[in-house]
Amino acid sequence: MPLILGCCLAALVTVTALYTLALYGTAETAATGAVAATLAVAVTVGVVNGSVRDAAGFGALTAGAAAVLWSLGRSHRRRRAGRAALAAYRAASAAVPRFAATTERDRLAAELHDVAAHRLTGIAVASAAALRLADPAMTAEATAHAAEAGRLAVAELDRLARVDRRGEATLADVDALVDGLPGVGYRRTALSAPPETAALAFRVVRESLTNVMRYATGAAVRVLVEESAGHLVVTVTDEGGPAAVEGLGTGTGLASLGGAVRAVGGTLDAGPDGDGWTVRAVLPATKPVPEPPRPRRTAGWRGAAALDWALVVLAVALPAGLGLLATEVPRPFAAPVPGASLLVLLVLHALPLRGRRLAPKVSLAVAQGTLLVWLACDAAGLTAPHSAQLVLECWWVELTLLYTVGAYGSRGWPAPLAVAGLGAFPLVSGMTGPPLAVWATLTVGLAVPTGLAWGAGLLVGGRRRRRSRAAALDRDRLDRQVAEAARAERNRIAAGLRRTAGARAQAVVEAAESGRLDLVLAEARAGLTALRELLDELRDGSDPADDTPPPVVAGIAALAARRGAVVGHEGRRRPLPATVEVAAYRLAEVLLADGGTVTVAYLDDGLALSGPGEARRVRAMADAAGGTVTETKDGVRVWLPEVFPA
What we know:
By secondary structure, the protein is of the alpha+beta class. It is 65% helix and 10% strand. It is built from 19 helices and ten strands. It has a five-stranded mixed β-sheet with strand order 1-2-3-5-4, covered by helices on one side. Strands 6-7-8-10-9 form a five-stranded mixed β-sheet. Helix 1 (2-24) packs parallel to helix 3 (52-92), helix 10 packs antiparallel against helix 11 (360-380) and helix 13 packs parallel to helix 15 (435-513). Mean pLDDT is 79; it is low at 163-167 and 288-299.
């Protein structure tokens, strides 16, 4: 009795330890524990009984049990992670539209500064110079310039309020921007650049020239746009000079520009250079080539297929273990050759469980075909006599595959009858009566469990499809809310823009058309003041709660900006399941902790994040989401499957 109690206690401790390890550890750690437990049981039985057959039998049964515990723990681990991610996503859903509005506000603030400030600053500088010199020709030229620049400012402000046109500038636009400007030496050796890079180069040159007009009037300026080592380098240098008119600056230009440059993986340096000032931007000149998409189900036995692999092990280990421990004649593994043949058949019969979700009908057909071969081998004497009786011990494989056909495949109503009919064949030899009648009776009896398994699959599959449709509707609804929030914010800013800077720009045009250069200067300065106040209002009007990005892929860029890091995107962006969005954001939080550049790549079968960091820091997080971690020369690459493991 003490020995039995000790064995039961040891078994309970082992079961608890294996399940806990699978629940809280990574796939590799839990698998190592399962293998260790299997070997420990086999060695212990071999030492105690001195029988290799008993050791192999108990080891096989332990392997099957350990595989089940491993898969149950892994499934619980993933479900728990999925529930937590879904709860975080739902809690943040209300914040996503607010965050979209904040992002739109920040974008418009940057463009307001770039577009309006450049035009109005030029008008104010030219008007002030003409009034100071009192030269009639210069006054006429400044008045004409004010009218033209004012009209352009009105048109650009109106366009900015109505349409989102980011990234449309080209290097030719840089040429046009500096063409004919007095005191500007310009040289461009770069022949081309990606649209986003060219647009940023245009912004760098425009902001730099605007600052020269404000703070170094009359200074000689050198603008150089060149390509170097796969980058577009933009350098703007001035020799210094007096400020044109006090109070023209808004104080946000270079800061906003620096964030835009870092967002594409570039750098921006600005500072004193002798008596003048130099701005130097290094921008990516080529688009990164994304890595080839990973094949589907890359996570293998670590991810959603963990249960499938565990079922394969169980389908082999259970009948093999029972056959090895059998004491009655015939013993299926008594002879080496028939035993090896039977083991091969068991493996072939179990392997379709691995592909049951990808191709449920094919998997069931392969299992049924293997069973036919098994019956033929049994009849030909290639296996131990009546070894097909073991079908009773692994017929649950057919039931599992039938369930999968219902859950993942089509309705396929003949499948339950076909499985029942084939499963009845091995049982006929042990029954009395006409074989055909016995077979028909057994087929009808077995059709009950096969029909139940298939029906359960239909119910679960229907429920899963309804959940997927509901989740898709939720994502669509959230997308509409995000678009509406951004549109409402754009309209709100547009109203303020027309009321302030837009009205002043129109007043500049009217004053210029009436020949009142003094009024032109006053309106231009008032417009810049109104613009500065509007920008301050936009910054002050931000809700501190909106500064925290929601835990979705769209929030990764904002998170990086707040940490002084850079995020690049590859592939066509598309909506992802909520659980994957949250898992990606949590992983990005860890990768961005070290700064540097993080790349988010949309692949055919999931999402990949690459960045600096150590694999051990993100392995557990990726493992819980069914993903994998690969070490690279620059850090790690994490792959998340688009279908979050259930």
